[in-house]
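Case study.
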Amino acid sequence: MASESEEPFRPEADGVNDHCIFGHPETRRRFIKQVAGTSVAIAIGPNILTSTSASQPVSTTTAAAIDSVKVTLNINGKKYALEVDPRVTLLDALRERLRLTGSKKGCDHGQCGACTVLVSGKRINSCLTLAVMHEGDEITTIEGLASGDELHPMQSAFIEEDGFQCGYCTPGQICSAVACVKEGHANSDDEIREWMSGNICRCGAYPNILAAIKAAKTKTLT
Amino acid sequence: MSPFTYSRAANADQAVTAVSGKTPGKFLGGGTNLLDLMKMGVETPNELIDINRLPLVQIEELPDKRVRIGALARNSDVAEHALIKSRYPVLSQALLSGASPQLRNMATVGGNLLQRTRCYYFYDPAFPACNKRKPGSGCGALEGYNRIHAILGQSEQCIATHPSDMCVALAALDAIVSVRGSNGERQIAFGDFHRLPGNTPQRDTNLAPDELIVAVDLPAMPFAARSHYLKVRDRASYAFALVSVAAALNVDSNTKIKDARVALGGVAHKPWRANAAEKKLIGQDANEKTFRAAAEAELDAAKGYKYNSYKIELAKRSVIRALEIVAGMTL
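After joint prediction, the assembly is written out as follows.
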């Protein structure tokens, strides 16, 4: 089982800049990494990049025949050339290969919305799509919302309205909320609730998430 | 996830040829159900043919007033399209009642038709018995926890339900499915597309393994502008239907019903066209008594199990409610 902390943290790995969930390089994640060090394993789940599911024995002839596939991903305005096993989801490519760990793996089955990213401006679950399907697509993750040090209005609103507790669902909530407003589906409390129903918050921060979306909507449109 | 080879098809013929190869292959559209099932180990294709670049995303009116929806049109695009919202509101509502905004942006119309059941015993290979997943292994739901299962058209082999909302609306609208295979193109009436379980519950549809869905046509049906999709579920949003009803009524100036379309979701192995109910509606006054008679007629053959008998009464009330809503609509 691979763990998140097997490799030392390299901020500039693969040419990716620091992870700016809220625009500040000292993110919660980095803090955890520094505290945890490299000897403590934080198991997040099976890593299909390096291993296959234990429940499914793989015939060696089939396994040998599977070639990795080349794909160029356009993420937050930067191009990344990758060679991946076709099984790699967009989410795993972002997190495990490109160190863009803002997008979170919650359920890994398209039910919780923690992995929400924008593809050509539309929100999707990055856990239920393969990286190889996105050759040439314009992908925006939570790391790509801010302009330099200036937070996206939705990010600021989540901070001002305290739209989170543990923060794990927050990147997905924010990406989804940005799309929700842009789609024109944020015209009433009920409409926002319905159109944000694909993002689950285990802490139950829904009232503040709702307040944040309303505040950001006003800011973006006035 | 079992390993597979990946290829991208440039056109429909290439896709059909690729899937007809020697290894069992599958078309990859939105991936929202297929990749999930592959992660669960329920689906184990050796080859995925990505059809997302095929030019099948159109939503357009044909010269004979039919509306053609390309198989790769995303659920969200169909739901928001002006033609669909004005002429077939039941379809737009059904789509918007399903899944989440993220999933609707990914899921295709063709893929929605091929969604597999959410029966717990099918979805989790840790359960040994499922005739749909492993023919001959038995049905775990029959004597198990069958709260979400079928009350109409089921067999002793399988009591799974079809999970789609969109398909319930398409059943009511008499949609036509266009498919292309190695032997060319053919059209399938919507009622013949999905199957009842019988002794072959492993087959959800009458689509051949090498056939690709290319489009879904909606016949011109002016009275469908007066239509509604009612969905009853455990949560207010983002949950599969326990029972759902797609209904459309053509009522004349004397409130006599000239024509009716009713279909039910969450009750059977396929989207359930309510023929018996429609027969009871046509020629009658559009009132609660008529709607009740229609609901009773349709559910007459229903059979419940330990945990899903509630669906019989729920389905009756849902039919009545949906018809009342449609009858009350002013256009």
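Observations recorded in class. Chain B has 13 helices and twelve strands. The longest strand of chain B covers residues 243-251. We will return to this complex in the next lecture.
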